[in-house]
Amino acid sequence: MKSSKPAEAALAANLDEAIGFTLPRRHARGRLVRLGPLLDEVLSAHDYPAPIARILSEALTLTALLGSTLKEVGGQLTMQAQTESGIIDLLVCDYRGGELRGYIRFDPARLSEVPIRPSLFALFGRGYLAITFDQAASGERYQGIVPLEGSSLADAAQSFFSQSEQIPSLVRLAVDDTGHIAGGLLVQHLPEGEEGRERLHTRLDHPEWEHVRMLSETIKSNELVAGDLPFSDLLWRLFHEEEEIRVLATVPLVKGCRCNFEHIRDVISRFGMEERQDMVDSDGFISVDCEFCSRVFPISLSDLDA
Known about the structure:
By secondary structure, this protein is of the alpha+beta class. The protein has helices at about 35-45, 50-65, 110, 120-125, 155-165, 205-215, 220-225, 230-240, 260-270, 275-280, 300-305; strands at about 15-25, 30-35, 75-85, 90-95, 100-105, 125-135, 140-145, 170-175, 180-190, 245-250, 255, 285-290, 295-300.
């Protein structure tokens, strides 16, 4: 399909959606993500201070960008950042079938000592970013680990693709001033064409990639989070000079947490009777916390016996 500027702006703002696109003549592919109500739902589980809420919003957006590329039903992507000396000692997000969840553990006392907009190093210190792809059908797992370096999570993600995947990539993440909308762009170069063909070279200075990268870098943060700017218009702004833009199917995104009484009861039932007895609190329950959704699940021994 030839690209053409939309005659009218679409009514939908593409909130809580991801779309894919390709530039066939340039051997490039990309994803756009914009989060809204989903973001509020995830953040409302914890009373996060603004700097922590912002970095989690970026992490959720990045997880959606990467996770929505999975093709296998039931496949899962997990992104985890861990440090030994940072204000944040754990950040974890995962994506499965359009469902997103995320959680951050941090030191409130140390956070109060840094600026309102702390740097990535101020939040994490020396740490690493691990991205894990779990394939449902084959059961295979692939993990890439890179240092948490650069000025943002977007920089760390670009390092992941450069070092682990050897794919020239550009990542942009943004959160609006209200903290209620986040957006992201991922663009990658596949020098030998689209998926299914062997990549014989992945030179960062390849002329096709250099052209796509320069166009992609013109995107502005306010465009990524503009609730009244449809993805179709945004792609037109970026790539209207290209001969063809192929827009792929939209992926709806929702807040998801897989904790429930049945699952937790099943996990606890695998422990021996003596171990279960040791878990029981003074009220006679085994209480299991879900950090993702900030819920406590009290399971009684009688429930397990039943």
